[in-house]
Specification:
This protein is α+β, with helices and mostly antiparallel strands. About 30% of the residues lie in helices and about 25% in strands. The chain has a domain of about 110 residues: T-fold (Orthogonal Bundle). The protein has an 8-stranded antiparallel beta sheet. A 3-stranded antiparallel beta sheet has the order 3-5-4, with no helix packed on it. It has a two-stranded antiparallel ribbon with strand order 8-9. The chain is globular.
Length: about 325
């Protein structure tokens, strides 16, 4: 059995290490960085650099700003092969590899559907007609995106396709921040962006980081788990949703049907990187418990909460932390 982040060993910082925690509103959420070390000035400089990485990812991937490189790619790639930066090519290659691994349950091209339901701007929510869904589905499909590694270019094989970073962008930003901290000599840190986090090393005097998983009912009944390394991401339909006639419609959409996920209330994934955890938490929400465990349960820690006839059930893979 492959070793997951929960069973990795890591050095302890000195018992008298300084602790520094700072938060900033970025990526449409609150990004919090906690570091431990012996030099507070150096820690502050490292945290500043880590936040710079997060801002760089926003400039790279945000679809809410027209000047981001991804926004420009979305405008041009349906009509021509578009050469992009090494950073954008690298993250998109990784995201689309995860789309293939999940057989399209996670799909970065889902944006036409997300737009149709009103979830991108979180306003003007509506239930699309079946005709509208069929038309949007024609513009969705990770296999319609062509990568040319030699030219470092991307082309959309269908018109009006668009990449949505919602299922991998925050995870990638967390990874970039953690790697920047590591490069600057930080050995103990946690970076958190909404439901996505990654740890580096261990906290002073402890054998694990204690992290909390959100309660799908938002009643404060969070679950604490012990994480010894790597990343953790949680996806759920309890943050961005609307209700009509007593029925909740959440932002996690099945790219194969265009409809919101219903049975899975939340899914938490542990993985070596936060980009993986972020994308696969979305994938498992779409796949459901049985297929998630079958396809991914031997490689990643999975924890799914499902609604089965009005009763919540928790399903965990063997690699999920205690």
């Amino acid at each position: 059995m492959a070793c997951q982040p929960s069973c990795q060993t890591a050095p302890h910082p000195p018992a008298d290490a300084e602790r520094l925690t700072r938060s900033q509103p970025l990526l449409g959420t609150l990004v919090t960085i906690t570091v431990h070390g012996g030099d507070r000035v150096a820690l502050n400089a490292a945290v500043n650099a880590a936040f710079d990485e997060v801002r760089a990812v926003d400039r790279l991937l945000s679809i809410h700003r027209l000047d981001s490189e991804l926004s420009q790619l979305n405008q041009s790639a349906s009509t021509q092969s578009t050469v992009i930066s090494p950073a954008l090519f690298d993250v998109l290659q990784k995201a689309f590899a995860l789309a293939a691994q999940s057989e399209g349950a996670f799909d970065p091209t889902v944006r036409p559907l997300v737009d149709l339901w009103g979830f991108i701007k979180k306003e003007n929510y509506r239930i699309p007609t079946e005709a509208e869904l069929r038309a949007a589905l024609l513009r969705v499909g990770h296999h319609h995106v062509e990568f040319n590694a030699t030219a470092r270019s991307i082309r959309f094989a269908k018109a009006d396709m668009s990449i949505d970073p919602g299922g991998f962008g925050k995870g990638y930003a967390v990874d970039r921040a953690v790697e920047r901290l590591r490069a600057l000599g930080v050995t103990s840190a946690m970076v958190k962006a909404g439901g996505d986090l990654r740890v580096l090393g261990l906290p002073p005097g402890a054998e694990q980081w204690i992290v909390q998983i959100e309660d799908p009912d938002k009643r404060g009944q969070r679950v604490s788990i012990a994480l010894r390394g790597g990343a953790l991401s949680t996806s759920g339909n309890y943050e961005n949703f609307f209700e009509i006639a007593g029925v909740r419609y959440g932002h996690l959409l099945d790219p194969r049907t265009g409809w919101p996920v219903r049975t899975v209330l939340s899914c938490t994934v542990t993985a070596p990187t936060c980009l993986e955890a972020d994308a696969l938490a979305t994938a498992c929400s779409v796949l459901g418990t049985a297929k998630s465990m079958e396809r991914l349960g031997a490689r990643y820690g999975l924890r799914l909460i499902t609604d089965e006839n009005g009763q919540q059930r928790v399903h965990q893979s063997p690699l999920f932390p205690k």
